[in-house]
Write a structure and sequence with these properties.
five-stranded parallel β-sheet; 8 helices; globular; binds BIS(adenosine)-5'-pentaphosphate; binds magnesium ion; Rossmann fold; single chain; alpha/beta
Length: 186
């Protein structure tokens, strides 16, 4: 079961993926988390990624695609995976389509989390991650509109997109996410 989560910064991709991963027993792959681990370990990849992340910009496609390609090759991902924060450009979506095809797999669905912008900003300012400053949040939101929104158009053409109202408590939203995922599993 391969499910792609798409949503603007603060929409709850990470929060909901964690809950759904437990519910259906698959692993959660967050490219943002992978980069933050690399930054913490001060690897070359981390140092490079930080140049983009700190300004709220996307890490270049070829770097992200290679990282995901390596990760999806891991045994733990063979039975399925929840993709959080990848793909976030049309080029990444095309690369994922090719990877999935190569492995004889398919994307079960693309869950789009929809949350009003003022709520996104409130959530992120409260969290205070390094890239949660007002300027960087605005840049991340702009990048989402320009680069990632078209990913949803890409998957609409494949009739894979299920839009979820991401407003409400974590538990409310999870009920909606779970219902959408369970429908796909039956
Ligand atoms: P990434 O780590 O993916 O960050 P993001 O997309 O900006 O999203 P967030 O992690 O901030 O939000 P989320 O949707 O996961 O929400 P969360 O559950 O955390 O990427 C970071 C950076 O890495 C990018 O800017 C880019 O530079 C780079 N990068 C990553 N992937 C890349 C890619 N594929 N290509 C290129 N570059 C890439 O929730 C947010 C907060 O809200 C939390 O505090 C949470 O507790 C709270 N919250 C969640 N749900 C609710 C709720 N229902 N009610 C109240 N609070 C809630
Ligand atoms: Mg996240």
């Amino acid at each position: 079961m391969l499910i792609v989560f798409v949503g603007p910064p603060g929409s709850g991709k990470g929060t909901q993926c964690e809950l759904l991963a437990q519910h259906i027993g698959v692993v959660h792959l967050s490219t943002g988390e992978l980069f933050r681990q690399q930054i913490q370990q001060a690897t070359k990849l981390g140092q490079l990624a930080a140049l983009f992340i700190d300004d709220g910009n996307l890490v270049p496609d070829h770097i992200v695609v290679e990282l995901v390609r390596q990760s999806l090759g891991d045994v733990q991902y063979q039975t399925g995976c929840l993709l959080d924060g990848f793909p976030r450009s049309v080029a990444q979506a095309q690369a994922l389509d090719a990877m999935v095809h190569e492995h004889g797999k398919q994307i079960a669905m693309v869950l789009a989390l929809a949350v009003p912008q003022d709520i996104l900003v409130d959530r992120l300012l409260q969290r205070q991650r390094k890239d949660d400053t007002l300027d960087t949040i605005q840049q991340r939101l702009d990048v989402y509109q320009q680069e990632t929104q078209p990913v949803l158009d890409h998957y609409q053409k494949q009739e894979l997109v299920v839009t979820i109202d991401g407003n409400g408590t974590v538990e409310d939203v999870f009920q909606r996410v779970k219902q959408a995922a369970d429908l796909k599993r039956t």
